[in-house]
Design a protein that fits this description.
2 domains; 54% helix; Cytochrome Bc1 Complex, Chain D, domain 2; mainly alpha; 216 residues; single chain; 10 helices; binds heme C
Amino acid sequence: MRALISALILGTTALMAAPVQADEISDGKRVYMTKTCLACHGRNGARAIMSYPVLAGQNEAYLLAQLEVIKSGDRLGSKDETTGHYFVQGMADIMHLLSEDDLKNVSAYLASLPPAKPEVLDPAPSDELLAEGAKVYKRLACRSCHGKEGERASNKAYPIIAGLDRDYLIRQMIDIRDKVRTDGNARLMFGVIKRADDEDIIAMATWLSQIDRNKE
Ligand code: HEC
Ligand code: HEC
């Protein structure tokens, strides 16, 4: 009888939990489609324009934390030399349109999506450069937080970095190394990333950008 009762209770909780999650995700999709996110981060968060980040399949807690610091202005990052504006400016300008619930739901939506396919680099990177990227990544012990191939994070609040846009990866590593991006958990990276020079960063970013998370 007790087992039956707990099975019933468990069953009811599961039934109650599922629609809430589904509602969050469908509301998050509405936010994504109507608050201009789509224009920069692309269909299903998987086809970003220029050197902007893809967001599909990223850790939910990390996404939410980034939305908070971009909204508050704590994460400004670096400026685009060709326009003189911060890369993130266009996004920062629209963040007042989002409520706390919008931030949560759009994070849940993006985290639920299948990861993007790796970008096609032109010219294709050489095997030597890819191997060098993997080697530097291993030498600097990045895997302790970002997984063997950047494909998972040791903590849900940390980002998955495999399969992101190469130029985005380069910019973030340089911004964090040079203490331009210092908000949130960025300081956890300071000790290791200072040991990477620009060439190391380019090699790691090229290698990471070509990892296909759909093949995990
Ligand atoms: C005008 C273009 C633009 C719009 C609109 C925009 N973003 Fe962004 N977003 C960016 C850029 C550029 C960055 C990276 C900034 C940098 O390089 O420092 C970014 C970064 C992010 C990040 C952090 C990703 C990471 O890996 O750290 C998240 C999450 C995000 N955007 C979500 C959104 C959501 C959700 C919306 C809609 C509410 C949105 N963005 C609208 C351009 C945009
Ligand atoms: C001690 C844990 C830790 C180690 C080791 C570490 N990282 Fe990170 N990394 C983080 C955290 C946490 C963040 C997110 C920072 C934030 O909250 O803004 C991050 C962010 C990043 C980002 C930006 C991701 C994005 O979507 O914007 C890149 C790229 C990155 N790390 C690459 C590396 C590389 C390459 C190494 C090795 C040289 C490395 N990390 C080592 C914890 C770590």
